[in-house]
Amino acid sequence: MEAREQWGTRAGFIMAAIGSAIGLGNIWRFPAVAYDGGGGAFFIPYLIALLTAGIPLLIMEFTIGHKYRGSAPLSYSRMSKKTEWIGWWAVFVAFVISTYYSVIIAWAMSYSVFALNQSWGEDTEGFLFGEYLQASDAGQIGSLVPGVLIPLIIVWIITLGVLFRGVQRGIEIANRIFIPTLVVIFLIICIRAVTLPGAALGLQAFFEPDFSAITSGEVWVAAYGQIFFSLSIAFAIMITYSSYLPKKSDITNNAFITGFSNSSFELLAGIGVFAALGFMATQAGVAVDEVVAGGIGLAFVVFPQIINAFPALSGLFGFLFFLSLVLAGLSSLISISETYVKGISEKFNISRAKSVAIGGGAAALISLIFATNGGINFLDAADYFINQFGVALIGLVEVIVVAWFLRKLPEFQEHANGVSDIPLGLWWRVCLGIITPIILGYMMFSLFVQNLFRQFDTETGNYEGYANSFVVISGWSVALFALAAGIVLSFVKWKNKPELARRDEGGKK
User: Fold this and answer.
1) E strand intervals along 234-301
2) pLDDT 10s digits, 349-403
3) Which residue(s) pair with 144 in the sheet?
4) pLDDT of residue 509 exceeding 50
5) Ramachandran assignment for 506, one of left (phi > 0), alpha (psi -120 to 50 degrees), beta (any other)
6) 3-state DSSP call for residue 374?
7) Nearest one of 321, 304, 376, 360 to 138, comparing CA atoms
8) Is the dihedral of CA 54, 32, 295, 306 positive or negative?
């Protein structure tokens, strides 16, 4: 095995942690969730969710990685041999996500070129699904689409190249370039957006509070869900990254900086997106709510329409917008991929180069499925089910096992307080032991009921109206694969399992 790596500086770790948190979802998911959740009033449950679930969970995962000095599987194995499967479950969820996330980055890469002369034309929706993706019906695979395949290969060359170079010379340097560049580009976009005619109308729609909305339980669940997903919790990322921290690292401070930096970028994204939507609504002579969209529809259908209507330098600002998606996506993809690169390397006692080739190579090959004619449908189903019944469910299991069964919170609190300026108190244990399990438990129960029973409901039907067979194969089976693979791999013996060195603060081997 190679010598254990660590971050060159604390700033390098924070930059990487922020890079893993700031992803495509911050740009196209948060603005729509906030708008639907009561506009300005949504920031009340959002901030509470950040302080009672987001940051406490970040602190817990930072502490696990820092204390046990390994990937998620190794850290859980050192915590308790019976919990190693949780770490592998998270790693396989990250693996699945990397296979299709890379394809979305490839779309953004293509669109950054299309933006230069608005080659998507007037019918941006028809261009996306027809001319560019050449989409077929759900369940059909079809052939590889060259326009997606070529940028996808570039995405994987960049990602695997960074991973091959390691932590300091690869991941840290990449994030030091990507994240500041992303922030600067998005600031330029926001400044331009707020100066467009009608921008004030969009910002009013985004910030105007509807306090009646926050009396709905669904809005609170949405706030906790947004915080949970946007901070990359339960992806095995934060455990992996914090394992590279030097022994004397301020865990609590790092968690607060990461959490608030991510939320600040989400707020910036909301301002930029809704200023642009206000401009679009003004140009079309309609209300803002008629042009609001979320997901890939916002990025690859609505924004090209906005760029078409730009009064000047439309090609430049279109290029900058999609370049920001590429940078956000690459920083997240690198962190997601690092989880299984490190896990494989430690489990089988092989070099980083071999682990990158095996794990990254497998992810790159599987991603080809999503670059076919039917790829968009497979991507949509896999993304929904792996996030809802992979990431969210792991988070629930993780916090219940750690807080209730292993009763590790007092021990983790002592460890974090030993190296942190901001001491953890009773609030941290209450948040993780009571508030977070209740909220996540309610979320999971609602999602299971909704998705299990609507297969038999002729009125609502399956997610996005897909056939039962397609949902089972492309949705449920993908989520179950991650769990099953995690359990199976936990039974495989470690090849020269690395011992946990005695720590300066008096911890045990």
Assistant:
1) none
2) 999 999 999 999 999 999 999 999 999 999 999 999 998 888 889 999 999 999 9
3) 372
4) no
5) left
6) coil
7) 376
8) negative
Please determine, for residue 459, whether its predicted confidence score (pLDDT) is greater than 60: no
Instruction: Please state the φ and ψ torsions of residue 194, each to the nearest 5 degrees.
Output: -75, -10
- With CA atoms as reference, report the closest residue to 304 among 129, 115, 109, 151: 115
41 near 210, Cβ under 8 Å?
yes
> To which residue do tokens 């994987």 refer?
156
Q: What distance in Å separates the CA atoms of residue 232 and residue 501, rounded to the nearest whole number?
A: 28
Residue 331 in contact with residue 170, Cβ under 8 Å?
no
Q: Cα-Cα-Cα-Cα dihedral of 171, 321, 255, 76, to 10°?
A: -50
- Structure-token pair, residue 464: 């996005």
Alpha-helical regions (H) of 22-83: 24-28, 30-36, 43-49, 55-68, 72-79
Residue tagged 């770490």 (tokens):
87
Compute the CA torsion angle 20, 177, 147, 119 (nearest 10 deg): 110
β-sheet bridge partners, residue 372: 144
Of 52, 487, 442, 112, nearest to 304 by C-alpha is 112
Work out the end-to-end distance of the chain between its first and last CA atoms, rounded to an integer number of angstroms.
19
Amino acid at 173: I
And the tokens for 365? Answer: 């090959």
- Give the single-character DSSP code of 474: I
Integer Cα distance of 372 and 133 in angstroms:
8
The pLDDT tens digits for 12-65 are 999 999 988 887 777 778 888 899 999 999 999 999 999 999 999 999 999 999
- Tally: H helices and E strands in the chain: 26, 0
User: Is the entire prediction scored with pTM above 0.85?
Assistant: yes
Give the angle subtended at the CA of 377 by the CAs of 375 and 379, to the nearest 5°. Answer: 65
Say which residue the tokens 């987001």 belong to: 54
Query: Whole-angstrom Cα distance, residue 509 to residue 507?
Result: 7
Token duo for residue 481: 């694969």
Non-local (6+) Cβ contacts of 94 within 8 A are 235, 236, 237, 336, 337, 339, 340
**Position 59, amino acid:** I
Structure tokens at 145: 């689409």
What six digits make up the tokens of 293?
A: 């969209």
DSSP 393-405: HHHHHHHHIIIII
Residue 489 to residue 394: CA distance in whole angstroms: 16
Whole-number Cα distances in Å, 42 to 212, 289, 299, 440? 10, 16, 22, 19
| Contact (Cβ atoms closer than 8 angstroms) between residue 368 and residue 353 | no
- Asked if pLDDT for residue 275 goes beyond 80, the answer is yes
| 399, two tokens | 């916090």
Distance CA 90, CA 78 (A): 16
Q: Which region, left, alpha or beta, applies to residue 121 given φ > 0 means left and ψ of -120 to 50 means alpha?
A: left
Residues 6 or more apart whose Cβ sits within 8 Å of residue 472: none
